[in-house]
Amino acid sequence: xxxxxxxxxxxxxxxxxxxxxxxxxxxxxxxxxxxxxxxxxxxxxxxxxxxxxxxxxxxxxxxxxxxxxxxxxxxxxxxxxxxxxxxxxxxxxxxxxxxxxxxxxxxxxxxxx
Length: 113
Hints:
- Helix content is 41%, strand content 25%.
- It is an alpha/beta fold.
- It has a single domain, classed as Glutaredoxin (3-Layer(aba) Sandwich), CATH 3.40.30.10.
- A five-stranded mixed sheet has the order 1-3-2-4-5.
- Helix 2 (33-49) links the parallel strand 2 and strand 3 (54-59).
- The chain starts with a strand and ends with a helix.
C-alpha cells in the first residue's frame, strides 16, 4: 500500500494549491471512524497511481480555516485538486472503484489537452 502524505495548515498552499500534479486530499480527523475506514482505500489508490497523483490527508481540527474555506461540513470529505482548483468532491466513505473512475476521468481530460 502507498502512504498518505500528511498536509497541515502551514503546508497546504505549497503541497496542494501549488502542486505540479493533481492532489487527492482527505479532509478528516483522528476521532473520525469513517476516516479510518477510508484511509486504507486511499492508501491502495496511492500505491496504484504512483507518482501521477499525490494522495494526502489533512486534519480538519488542525486546519479549521482551510476546512471552512472549502465548506467541509462532514468528514471524511475528499477533494481532487488540479492547478489549485477543486475538480471533484466525495463526501463520506466511497468505494475505491468510484473514486478511481472519477479521478481517472480528470486525468484523461488532462492528457487530452
